[in-house]
Amino acid sequence: MTDARRLLLQAQVAFWVCVALCFAFAGGGLGDNHGFSVYGGNWSTIAPWAVGIAAASFLILRAARALEPQDHELAWWLRVNVVLLLSVLFTPDTVDRIFYEAHVVASVALFLFQAVVGLWLVRRRPGTVILQLYVAQIGGGVVAGLSQLQWIGLLSPGIFVFQVAFGALLVLSVASQQRAPAYPRQLPVPRRSDG
Predict the structure, then answer these.
(1) How many CA atoms lie within 13 A of 109 on its CB side?
(2) How far is CA 20 from CA 38, 121, 168, 172, in A?
(3) Cα–chain center distance at 126
(4) Where on the phi/psi map is residue 74: left (φ > 0), alpha (ψ -120 to 50), or beta?
(5) pLDDT tens digits, residue range 108-124?
(6) What is the DSSP secondary structure assignment for residue 187, as one 8-state letter?
């Protein structure tokens, strides 16, 4: 499981380093209530944006392969996550109205899927830190959702909090799984005294 945890952490680092490069190349570019996907429609940032998503997807798939023998369910969830992540990449929202609508559908599907997976991880590995990460994830999702509806203008901060919390939730869930014993320890059976 150590390999899976390391690969999931590397996926997060690869993605966010590429987003930081996009931010530097575009001089921000996140105004007007844009999400990070705006980098997929800008010629100066499309390469690092695509590399970030591709690298994260590759590393997540490797983590899924490493998890497969011990945790088939989480491995499957990770693979579905990659499909949805790539659907966001391949529907740049700046091409035309159809691509914009497809991008919104892909993004909403990704967020809803990750919210469900986050809840599944909380129920599976309850703990204070895991629960706090999930609350942060959902809080970021609410901010992003309200921003997508144009009620507030904080789409990028909401997405950032949601995605960082979800990434940390995955990494810590795999780490806690590694520390959990494979079989519950049996308590010693008290001996009956004859007398």
Answers:
(1) 16
(2) 13, 28, 18, 23
(3) 18
(4) alpha
(5) 999 999 999 999 999 99
(6) P
